[in-house]
Write a structure and sequence with these properties.
326 residues, Cathepsin B, Chain A, 2 domains, 6-stranded antiparallel β-sheet
Length: 326
Amino acid sequence: MTVKRHAVWTGLDPAAYAAHPLHTGERMWPETNCYVDLWIEVLNAFGTAPEAMLGFTLAQDFEGDQFTFFKVPLEDLESLYGIRCTELAIYDRVEDHVLAQIERGRLCLVEMDSYFMPDTRGVAYRQEHGKTTVAINRLDVSGRSMDYFHNAGFFRLEGDDFDGVFHRNDGPDDLPFLPYAEFAKFPSRPTEAAGLRKEAARLLAVHAARRPAKNPVAAFSREFPAQVAAVAERPFGFFHKYAFNTLRQLGANFELAASHFDWLAPDGSLGGAATHARRISEVAKSVQFQLARAVTRRKFETLATALDPAAEAWEALFAELGKRFG
């Protein structure tokens, strides 16, 4: 008789889980965005280096009203780690689909409501409905319990929260729960370190060539004061959404880029690039505090030049990379 699996990795316990160093409290941005943070911890649990995937950060752009919500390309996951991730069609109960994949050793990534996730306590849990992505390692439907990767860690939810995330109490007139979902197929073992570093170096050159044609920090800087003046007219809670999608995405993106350079070149040959990337991150962090003061005081004049050091660091970063990649 075949024994059914209820977890992809059976040895993981949320109570004993140690987050990856990319999520330590000493970092400027201990959390980045739900998708990248999730993959950092999934790769950590798989026993490989998440730093290898971070070359894609070089392609971040200013999109007019926000910075790119940076995500690791699925083709990078495959070429680096041998992980194949693709969309999971939802045509039945979501938990049934997840169980079917777990039994095959596959990790499901599902968009769920942070209102029911206890790890967001104080931010969204039982306060605000929000879309976020989790990776489900263990699922016990009869016991109403789930272990999942989310943001900077590995957590458990159960009971009423389990019923909430899977919409088990919805009535016949409610819209069906049809979230976007993916599933990841893992190789039998992680890529060896030498091969991982070689492929990461190749991808870094690819993503450097995909950088924006014009300086995205300078483009944002030109729009920034007017955007903040408009934010000041909204309820204060809107400030957090604006800051998350602009300064936090910018700053977190380039702090990860710096970590990528440090990991890829332990000999220090990318030290200059790492310094410029961290400078962008530092400025974004500082300006986020200035943004809060400007909104409170309704004084926006100083914001016109606040991002200039980050724009200069972006130029210096790609000039440094140009010496290496042409």
